[in-house]
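Quarterly update from the structural biology core.
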Amino acid sequence: MKLSKRLAAIDQMITQHYDHIFDCCCDHGLLGMQLLKRQAADMIYFNDIAQPLIDSLKAILIQNAKNTNWQTHCLDVSQINLPKHGKSLVIIAGVGGDKVIDFVKAITHNNSSVNFELLLCPVHHHYRVRKALIDLNFRLCQELLIKDNRRFYEILHISFEAPQKLSSIGNSMWDYSSLTHFEYYKQVLKHYQQQSLDPKKQVDKIIKAYLTLDKSFQKYFNK
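Predicted structure, tokenized:
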């Protein structure tokens, strides 16, 4: 089965070889199978909390995988213990922002002495996710903004040793000449401006942060 635009983008962002790659919340395992096919790591771990999905996926892998460099696990992401040897990449995609934050906090706490990177693609709450990652001292390897099936996704590749500072509103992911990116910018801004009507939301700082992008977009688009 062909990868969605979102999963294909995640796959393309993995440009180096890892000792271990964990495809968390793997669903039907399409991304992990692509990584297994191109041997992106010495070992690919397929992880999902739904036992029927894991059982079905394991049967498919046994029948079709051309190598045995894989394992399947039915486990909550927050319970994952990463191998202490080698370098690990943990992929968390297809879940909400609050879940991503909880998972990352747990992985960070449980694997404090392990060399690992994260590749995250939350379904929503991107600003909240970014602020939590900054508080945890993560830095940016790369980031990408895509639109797939009428939904926008921010994909974040992060680690503790990455060269770039992580921004709460995104930095290198923005293409100010792109109509798609402008559409996303307007959507996010409208969302928080609507929330600002409720004083309890306290989003003025968020709106102010996103408005710093306005001049860059105005060079290409008239509001």
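The two ends are 41 Å apart (CA to CA).
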